[in-house]
Amino acid sequence: MDFLRPADWEEALAAKAEHPTAVPIAGGTGVMVEINFDRRRPEYLMDLNRVGDLLEWEVGEDSVRLGASVTAELLLEGGKVVTDGGEVLADLADVLGDEAIEVEEEWRHRPTEPFDRRTGQGNGHVQYSFAAHPAVVEADTGLGLVKVVELACAQDVGKALNPLSVLGQIQIQGGTVQGLGIAVMEEIVVDPETAKVRNPSFTDYLLPTILDTPTIPVDVLELADDHAPYGLRGVGEAPALSSTPAVLAAIRDATGPALDRTPVRPEHLTGTA
To answer: Which residues form the FAD-binding PCMH-type domain (predicted)?
Structure first.
């Protein structure tokens, strides 16, 4: 498909005579365009934006009515053919029809730099993820027992290409449960004399099950990362990091002890450690 761009009315008539199937298009302030692109895929599109003082063009099924003077340019934005004034003329898919389009793009991540040794801040990584957790717990300081009642999460995922996966077990909720396990259950016990692991199986190494999993409300934020393809951010790692300190902070607030290690064991709450 080609564009014809006549400079004046005479050239437009000559182009239409030479290419009778050409479909006229135009745009600008106060312009009404009536083109049925679903009818066919035209071989030529005739851009009439440079034709001044054109009041009406009507040939067969094609009809374009313009104001007294037209100076708009045609642009491609968001898969649509639009004028420089923002008026949508047609979907690009309708204009192209069944013609296949191949696009090759190259993307490079933003440059990184060393962290500031004094503040620890800087762009030392290609991308950053953001997640926050509030936790609600019930604690029995006499028995040293803890139950996590709710562990909500708000996370900026950039763009959720697969919302069900982002929300479900393998991402936000899954990472949250991992952090829960680190906070109150999971621990590798090593014999200080033999250096052997005392709990080498899942019989003794405790993992959270569905019975240990609290309610996990999730607020997914999609604040696109301008430096990443499709605006994506990492999803699964961040909730596994922020959920652990959230649980410990809630237990500390409810019971009083400083709790400077994980997992929190009964003796840490009863004062018998």
So the answer is: 1-177
